[in-house]
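*** Fold description ***
***
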Amino acid sequence: MNLPSSCITSQSYPETVPQENTKHYKIILADDHQIVREITAEMLECLGHEVITFNDGQEVVDYYLYGNHEVDLFILDLVMPKMGGVDCLKKLLAINSKLKFVICSGYPNHQDLSLILKHGIKSFLPKPYQLSDLRRVIDNLTIPNIH
């Protein structure tokens, strides 16, 4: 995972900074690895998004159940202690079937990937990823009528 220097100097890499017509979203990010969480949050903020981070899926579900429904996108690690991405996704979809998700994993052949497809989740982001990968997957998910 590479944090782009564009977050520091946008003149060097203008294609990576948010453009004025780019939408900005509230994103929930859950990953049990602190460094991955921190770098990914910085990359998302560099793209102009508001990011709230959590250590595992249970924290995400608790946050949402507490009434924090103003979330545009969930980015969840597939494998986390307590509650992984698939169980978190299932619980949140049971509450609101219109929520949007990106599932991330460093295990591209993990058995739970087939479960994700059963739930209609089309966005899988293999680790390690870069800023351009995050931008692409978010742009693809936020096009109207894509679920």
User: Anything to note?
Assistant: The mean pLDDT is 82.
